[in-house]
Amino acid sequence: MRTKARSQGLRRGHWEENKAPWYEQTMVYCDACGMLIPKKQFVLEENGVSRRFCGAECAQIAERVRELNQR
């Protein structure tokens, strides 16, 4: 269920396009929900590690889960 609360912005996220040709069998999956990312992916880089997400919402969820796991 969605709320009208404003979400906190992500630190270093940006959109990238998968430049693999259509005939190449490279598959990229979201690091949060596991869905297949067909063309555009939201990339969050932290400490030299790139994590790919299907959207900014999944990146926020993954960040929140990571924060909760560190407690």
Question: Which short descriptors sum up this protein?
Answer:
71 residues, alpha+beta, Ribosomal Protein L24e, Chain: T, three-stranded antiparallel beta sheet, two-stranded antiparallel ribbon, 1 helix, 5 strands, 20% helix, elongated, disordered N terminus
CATH architectural arrangement of the domain at 13-18 and 27-69: Roll
- The CATH topology name of the domain at 13-18 and 27-69 reads Ribosomal Protein L24e, Chain: T
Helical stretch tally: 1
**Amount of beta strand:** 25-35%
What's the CATH first level of the domain at 13-18 and 27-69?
Mainly Beta
The helix/strand series, from N terminus to C terminus, equals EEEEEH
Low-confidence stretches: 1-7
How helix-rich are the residues, as a percent range? 10-25%
Mean pLDDT: 84
Question: Tell me about the biggest sheet?
Answer: 3 strands, antiparallel
Q: Cα distance, first to last residue?
A: 25 Å
Strand order of the largest sheet: 1-4-5
Q: Assembly state here?
A: single chain
What is the SS-derived class?
alpha+beta
* Net shape: elongated
Q: For the CA atoms, what is the radius of gyration?
A: 14 Å
Q: What's the count of strands?
A: 5
